[in-house]
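Pilot study result, target chain (324 residues):
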Amino acid sequence: MSLITAHEALGQALAEEMRRDSRVLMFGEGVATKRTDLLEAFGPQRVRNTPLAEGIIAGTAAGAAATGLRPVVDLLFAPFLCFAMDEIVNSAGKLRYMSGGQFAFPMVVLAMTGGGWTVGAQHNHNVEAWFVHSPGLKVVMPSTPEDFKGLMKAAIRDDNPVLFFMDMGLAFVPGEVSEDEVLIPLGQAAVRRKGTDVTLISYAKTVHTCLAAAETLAEQGISAEVIDLRTLKPLDEATLLASVRKTGRAVVVHEASRLCGVGAEVAAILSEKAFDHLKAPVLRLTGPDAPAPSSYVLEQAFAPQADAIVQAGLTVMAERVMAG
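Predicted structure:
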């Protein structure tokens, strides 16, 4: 095992996949400047900077993918995906279906999201639910360096366009990554902590907040299971349902706003498919329906914190007492 950051783990994944497959290339905003090791190893034909023109970058990637290449493009901050919606959603996401499978679009779109860098509302906006709602796309949002590496490798090998979101607060947090091949299938959640009383469901940086909350709940005699979704689309329903059918209670946590967020879909799945096992209503803890602040203190308040998750866990446990 080696101790590296998510940023470094992505670099390892890219280098390994570029060595494995000559069709893999990377371009985007500042990629050759940020990843000089890749530029030196693979040259400017496969690693290059582009103008700050998200629509052109994404459109070029879609065209390259249609011709048989496997591009990875970096559009930096997630809100600027707005400038590439037609190319990602309307072209890459739909043309494989519209062509009857004659074309594939094996491209990865990398973007940073979430709080932690105090970059303000126009650079910090969790937009992952937009793309979960878009047919033909897959969506990944890891929480650990090993998952960043393993999921990026899987995303590059996938024949569909994949939105790969890096939570900014995790970019330079170190974690253990295996020295062996790391390849994590898309659509497979991880059980980060086993428990029997309540299931905490999350992704990206709030997974770590859930783990901290689970420690506090354990001190109060409540056993919390923590599920890391990792891939938002396809969603691992089997792992979610197995956990909630066991615990009977669920709290869904994410930094993105509540309305029509990923948590709403998870809550609906649990209500439809595990209703007979629920001992309390499914609760959601999310960010507010407001632009993200640029103040660090306010940015921390913007995202769900461990004490709020603990209180939610206590609330769903109290529902059982009231019902009894």
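One observation from the pilot: The radius of gyration is 20 Å. A full batch analysis is planned for the follow-on phase.
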